């Protein structure tokens, strides 16, 4: 029996527009796709039937943040229904802060296409040069007259006459006007080390999810096989993904407190929970531990690498569309949060701008209040009092909005998907996208 493997996903920054065009589904040439992306706005596999909205199932907020997407095709022996297949994960920062609501604060969507479809050319019959020559655009929402929300990337419902941009609703229209694209999570590419050299061939094939990642081998009991450790480590160093600056062995001497900081753990919590100890031991055995953002092993016998004993699922619901069993496919690691945090420079700028704005409003209100107290009541225009009360209310709302801009937080997020990868036959609010099941373990210090 072949032992299952775990593939490790890594984040690297996207340096320029040229690199961005080869991330996810922005290119019509699917031989360029590899892994996926973290943060930013989603790149839709089906560009025509995009979700109208993706509200939080717990608080109904439309402010769920796009976290990551993976390109994960499946080769079924009987047909090619999942020749292209992508998974999208969205999270509600507010509900992830509450242990009672964490599992309602994450949604996972799946989309898939056969080899011959209306959106992407079959590269077995066409090569990338031919696609470029005809300026292929069928993979873009614009080709299907679909306008995307400037903030979240789902289907836009209307165009703001002032901003000249499309939005999915008034909430995102106001949020974009207030904060611009700073509300969007920082964008990274989910890729790993270079693939081994292969002989050039005129026939192109698609890249499988993480076809070029380092693999952790496990025996049937889930223990790791270190037989190929040296080769895997060497490739990571050569690719420059061993730590922030590519220096070999940077994380080999990673201290316990560094790991504590990464996963939000107090030392006493770690020592008391054998599951947490196992988590520590597993991630410490690999270099570039800070960059290991995702673990992938589709429908194998393996369980997720849990971060603690508590908050584990007792059962996984079957697929609502076909009734097939759902099994574990991948998990997000706490290290991914590092790449999703708002850049400190932008945060400082926002804070300074807000501070200046509130100082000006405060000064105006104080001058108004001083005049009101000194003037006879009959000389105070009612409109002035209404304007004062309205200004105070607006400032209060803005302050509450700033408080609500919470960071995402989790211990691990485990995703379970339909083992038949069934096709969705009808369109609804999610368009051509099916919903799968995600389980969130909260961080150790939440």
Mean pLDDT across residues: 75
Q: Write down the Rg.
A: 25 Å
Whole-number tally of structural domains: 2
Order of helices and strands: EHEEEHEHEEHEEEHHHHEEHHHEE
- Uncertain runs are 192-205, 209-256, 343-349, 399-405
Question: What is the straight-line distance between the termini?
Answer: 40 Å
Strand content: 15-25%
Strand order of the largest sheet: 1-8-2-3-4-5-14-13-12-11
Helix- and strand-based class?
A: alpha+beta
The total count of strands amounts to 14
Envelope shape = globular
The helix content, as a percent range, equals 25-40%
Instruction: Output the number of helix runs.
Output: 11
Strand count, sense and barrel status of the largest sheet are: 10 strands, antiparallel, barrel
Pfam families: PDCD2_C (PF04194)
Domain Programmed cell death protein 2 C-terminal: 276-345, 400-441
GO cellular component, one term: cytoplasm
InterPro entries: PDCD2_C (IPR007320)
Structure description:
With 446 residues, this protein is of the alpha+beta class. It has two domains: 5-117 and 183-342 and 409-441, no CATH class; 344-404. It is built from eleven helices and 14 strands. The strands form two sheets. It has a ten-stranded antiparallel beta barrel with strand order 1-8-2-3-4-5-14-13-12-11. A two-stranded antiparallel ribbon has the order 6-7. Helix 10 (344-374) packs antiparallel against helix 11 (382-404). Residues 192-205, 209-256, 343-349 and 399-405 have low confidence and may be disordered. Residues 195-254 are annotated as: Disordered. Residues 276-345, 400-441 form the Programmed cell death protein 2 C-terminal domain.
